[in-house]
Amino acid sequence: MGAAAIDPQTICNVTLIGDPDETARLRRRLRRGGPGTGPIPWSTDGVEHTVHLAELSSRVPVAELERSIRVADGIIAVVPAGVRRAPRLESILRMADDHQVARLCLVTGLDHPGADFDRCVRVIADIRGAVPVAVHSPMGAGAGFAGVIDVVPMWSLAPMAAEFFGDHWAVAERRYRDLVRAVLEQDGAETGIPAEQLVDGIRRLTHIGEAVPVLCDGDPAVDDVAPLLDAIVRYLPSPLHVWQPEHSLDC
């Protein structure tokens, strides 16, 4: 029997870019310790997807970095939360903007001393082009890091979650209002917007290069990669949605 046909719209070709130790660790986690090659099957919102992963070291020569970014369908830029200056990260995001490549940013190491999620968002915001939209909100940082709140569906958890998350909920509320304002161009005070509406808006703006979803890596003790895989298939384009002539369909 032949292999089952795969709907091209359910394919996602993703390039992890960052320090090679960080990207290798992330690749192993996404594959849940399995083999380093082959696609990752992942189901989100009732749809089966196929995720192809590639890695690119941020240390390679600039010309090679730009060439690889130019032909990527979508990238995930790995952003260490404790690094104050990241000139190579800024170059990566500028290259992605120049070549209209959709991207996510994953902030890692939020449990490390000196970690600062807001600083990472400001660094991304200072780069011309896409606007960073925080779809996650960390609960603390450094030794006090206690996990992540998913901002997009958070109002479905209220008011019980407001009591459970304590002071972290107020910070997540602010990020929710910023997200609504950036994605839907509505008054950020509005609440209770269906998560599907926000997801559609984030995906559209990411595909056209006007937004960069910013995610938090979770509690290392839990090591849950589901939120990142969900974000990959929800926000990054399939080969059918990539318009650059350099791209080809990867089935």
Describe it:
There is one protein chain. With 251 residues, the protein is of the alpha/beta class. 35% of the residues lie in helices and 22% in strands. It has a seven-stranded mixed beta sheet. It has a two-stranded antiparallel sheet with strand order 7-8. Strand 2 (40-44) and strand 3 form a beta hairpin. The chain is globular and about 50 Å long.
Question: What attributes characterize this protein structure?
Answer:
about 250 residues; alpha/beta; Rossmann fold; 7-stranded mixed beta sheet; two-stranded antiparallel sheet; globular; nucleotide-binding
How would you concisely characterize the structure shown here?
The chain has 251 residues and is α/β, with parallel strands linked by helices.
- Which term fits the overall shape? globular
CATH topology: Rossmann fold
Query: Structural class of the secondary elements?
Result: alpha/beta
CATH class descriptor name: Alpha Beta
User: Looking at this structure, what is the CATH superfamily?
Assistant: P-loop containing nucleotide triphosphate hydrolases
Q: Quick one: how many beta strands?
A: 9
Mean pLDDT: 88
Tally of DSSP helical segments: 8
Helix content: 25-40%
Low-confidence stretches: 245-251
Strand proportion, as a percent range, falls in: 15-25%
Set out the fold topology.
Layout: E1 11-18, H1 20-30, E2 40-44, E3 47-57, H2 62-70, E4 74-80, H3 87-98, E5 102-108, H4 117-125, E6 131-134, E7 136-138, E8 148-150, H5 160-165, H6 167-184, H7 195-207, E9 211-216, H8 226-235
Parallel strand pairs: 1-3, 1-4, 4-5, 5-9, 6-9
Antiparallel strand pairs: 2-3, 7-8
Helix pairs in contact: 6-7
